[in-house]
Amino acid sequence: MNVHDLPTPLLVVDGAALDHNVTTMAAERPGRRLRPHVKAFKSTDLARHVQATGGHRSFCAATLRELEGLTDASVGDDLLLANETLEGDRLTRLVERADARITVAVDSPETVRTAAAAGASVLVDVDVGLPRCGCPPEEAGAIAELARSLGCDVRGVMGYEGHLVGVPDRTARASGVEEAMALLRVAAESVGGDVVSAGGTGTWDLHPWATEVQAGSYLLMDTHYDRLGLPFRLALSVETTVLSVSPERGTAVLDAGLKSFGMDHGNPQVPGWRVFFCSDEHTTILPPEGPAAGMTAAGTTGLPSVGDRVRMLPAHVDPTVAYHERMVVVDGEEVVDVWAVDLRNW
Amino acid sequence: MNVHDLPTPLLVVDGAALDHNVTTMAAERPGRRLRPHVKAFKSTDLARHVQATGGHRSFCAATLRELEGLTDASVGDDLLLANETLEGDRLTRLVERADARITVAVDSPETVRTAAAAGASVLVDVDVGLPRCGCPPEEAGAIAELARSLGCDVRGVMGYEGHLVGVPDRTARASGVEEAMALLRVAAESVGGDVVSAGGTGTWDLHPWATEVQAGSYLLMDTHYDRLGLPFRLALSVETTVLSVSPERGTAVLDAGLKSFGMDHGNPQVPGWRVFFCSDEHTTILPPEGPAAGMTAAGTTGLPSVGDRVRMLPAHVDPTVAYHERMVVVDGEEVVDVWAVDLRNW
To answer: Where are the domains of chain B?
Structure first.
């Protein structure tokens, strides 16, 4: 099957780029030293591929739905909800039916009690500088003590330095990670256990101390992470069809827009073109040079034709994938696999 | 069922606000004078409700998937793809099985040929100032002529002034619409037919000439449209759960973020709170007053508790709904209906 024969908009994965990313990461962080984060791709098929080709069997997730999907697809043997939950009934049912070990992050008495009642193991989630979840480092010991008193297996600590993973300068990123991990070290000493879970794609190789890194975006990548000069390749694009061309304006219109791309990191890119603007189901593009946004007669030179296929590059992989129900894996133009994005919704 | 007993994040529709919006619109533009746009809510259940309570039987859509869903659910008797398509096979199958009349927008010889081969009726889509699809007004006659020569029923013209629907000042909006409709009038004269389809929620009452207005956002609304002072009420929110609270920082964390909200119009709002930032599955909020983003000891005053429910208001309804698989309709806290968002994907 040729990818051009499928309807658009369509998530397209370059299989060779994906496998380059898998092997590059696995060489630095093999096996359980990496806990691939499924929130970045929301697909048990892709998780299974990473398990088979990268050799990782620990996964983490941001939602119970993701964890349930991995469990029901029998992917991984050590599954972490790297997030807090108060959904006791669902967590209980998950722990009961899972062959894998189920661990959840906790940062409060309420989340500890939910985990304990469900019989899940826990990591104490520590605030290492990102103003989101996580307890203060000096309170981590008390959280662990409460968890143990309720019968929980306390496996260690988790601290996500999400405020640093996108810092452009590597030296600044590295020193930021050191400061963040100094906070996590304080917590780890009082919590005990043998797991220190931290990091993300932008800091994947800056964690000599963490026992495991949580990275997911490295697999498919996006233009935002691509600015950091990481060794991972852009593997994800959205294939579109040219719906309309205006020689008078010098614009063309692609059939993917705000409902195909997470927009919080800005517009997607179209190699060789400028993106003028996105609307729900369209993106208007301009040639790289010319009269531009004033739009006085850019002329026809170089415009595509109605029906042409054009690939767009997402600025932020996670909220992009979450809009789609499938991704096709290609070798050149040939479709070699179709993977369901089956971990959407909650 | 109480809405607080359902998992979050959860799309919540205030049934009374929705029905206020339906009846307000239907009073001004009854029956076929309005063509509700399903792209704003992607639900055949909601479309059926609008048909029953508003009395409209013409609908429009932005994707073939939306049109197929309306057809298979037997909602509406006059369905318009207010967009171009080159998917001839799907369109042919749709026309064959539809009880409703199927019409598509065309703006080029390629899209005319697709429609003609499928046996669809057409509206000539005219560029009235939004740099997207649509032919120049002076070329509309030739497009119509081509369509008729291929056996198409040419019903009239369509022109969407999307560059104007969000203009804050009503007078400026109105004069912009007049200019746009002057362009559409030129096209209508050469095209013929009895349909002039134009407009959107922001210009819903500025179209004395158009035979039908395409509006969809008016039903659920969002904070962006709410700034215009329209008579439509905010009917849509996303119910969330407080996952984590930091008295030290003066922040709380809600369990909905970039994968629950279209972000192109900026952050969602949380009434009574400031939104600090959104990440994939979280939004960190601050009290309305206090030390704020410096985050030095804002104190505990007024922070919610872990487990509390908080409703968030989307900035842009269309790409928000497209992330969710269902919406619940409430009367106060009581769930009175559950509607599938069944028109997602393509």
So the answer is: 16-219, 236-340
Q: Give the residue from A132, A254, A325 with the most B CB atoms within 10 Å of its CB, the best one to mutate.
A: A132
pLDDT tens for chain A, 346 residues long, are 999 999 999 999 999 999 999 999 999 999 999 999 999 999 999 999 999 999 999 999 999 999 999 999 999 999 999 999 999 999 999 999 999 999 999 999 999 999 999 999 999 999 999 999 999 999 999 999 999 999 999 999 999 999 999 999 999 999 999 999 999 999 999 999 999 999 999 999 999 999 999 999 999 999 999 999 999 999 999 999 999 999 999 999 999 999 999 999 999 999 999 999 999 999 999 998 765 544 444 444 689 999 999 999 999 999 999 999 999 999 999 999 999 999 999 9
Q: Is the dihedral of CA A134, A138, A144, A147 positive or negative?
A: negative
A242–chain B nearest CA distance, Å = 9
Contacts of residue B280 in chain A, CB cutoff 8 Å? 39, 62, 318-319
> Distance between CA A137 and CA A153 in Å, rounded?
19
Top-level class of domain B236-340: mainly beta
* DSSP-H helix ranges across A133-212: 140-149, 170-191
- Comparing alpha-carbon positions, the chain A residue that sits nearest to B266 is A264
Give contacts of A 158-187 with B, CB under 8 A.
162
Cα A184 from Cα A74, distance rounded (Å): 32
Q: Which residues touch A161 (CB under 8 Å, ≥6 apart)?
A: A128, A129, A130, A176, A177, A180, A181, A198, A199, A200, A203
B249 touches chain A (CB under 8 A): yes
At A303, list the tokens: 């415009």
CB contact residues (below 8 A), chain B span 286-315, against chain A:
295, 306-307
Cβ-based neighbours of B127, under 8 Å, separated by 6 or more: A246, B107, B133, B134, B135, B136, B137, B159, B183
**Residues from chain B contacting residue A344 (CB–CB below 8 Å):** 325
Return the CATH superfamily for domain B16-219: Alanine racemase (3.20.20.10)
- Give me the architecture of the A15-223 domain, per CATH: Alpha-Beta Barrel (3.20)
Q: How far is B126 from chain A (nearest CA, A)?
A: 12
Q: Do domains A15-223 and A236-340 have the same CATH topology?
A: no
Which of A10, A244, A280 lies at the smallest CB-CB distance from B39? Answer: A280
B237 touches chain A (CB under 8 A): no
